Fold:
Amino acid sequence: MIQRLKQLKQHKRWLLMVSVVGVAIILSACARGGANHQPIGPDYDGLWEGLIWYFSRFIIWSSDLFGGNYGIGIIIITLISRILLIPLTNMQQKNMSQMTELQPEIEALKEKYSATDSKTKEKLQEETQKLYDKHGVNPLMGCLPMLIQMPIFIAVYSAVSRTPELATGSFLWVNLGQPDPYYILPILAGLFMFVNTYLMQMGRDNAGIGGKIMSIVMPAFIILITVNLSSGLALYFVASNIFAVIQTLIFNNPFKKRREAREEMQRKEAEEQRRKRAIKKAKKYGRNIKK
Structure:
């Protein structure tokens, strides 16, 4: 059990590190232009090149359904990829909410096992894992959807940058192969990411300072990166983050959670008032009543 806990903690740390560093490296590489910008064609070599080719063909095919509007094609493939990820994303959000709800109990365990000797630390890890198992919480689930989405993101970027039709296509005011000259798409991408993280924080009663900081840092990071990316990829981020906001409102609505929490509090207060009145009445007539 102790060895398993140590491995779990180490794996979680590595997953978080790899996820953050991986996204930063990939986005930075994309911003610099990447190493391979040769046009993708039907004579592709390898499984990865094949995935890029089929992504490219699907975008063009769906674009043709809307009069050759390649921006619509990018939005469609973004929505499809997000829909496929709904089960994992919902699992991630549920897991994060449960982790937040468990924070008071985790802090109590840390206070109970506050000694710094190795035996006490192992006992703390063991009790923490028991708490996770009891509530069906897996700390590693926070990274899984992002790790799965990364190959999709890279494939979409490669399809946009290596398909001549997309690189020279236009959507509204932008050339899909060039950065947005007015920075509207990068700002929208960051704005909707902020809205989504804000909504998720609203749904958690015990949101930590780390989550609040990330809700500001990540949108700012997305804006800084996408100002140098092609508008096609910036459009991908905008569509993806808008979808994330809608998904949060449907499956993890913070306004509904707050209303339910308020109603539950009012119900408990009403029960407490009834109990006090019953006790007062019982005392008046000399009867015993359980408190």
User: Anything to note?
Assistant: The first strand starts at residue 170 and ends at 171. The first helix runs from residue 2 to 32. Confidence is low (pLDDT under 50) at residues 1-18, 28-35. The chain has two domains: 2-252, 253-291.
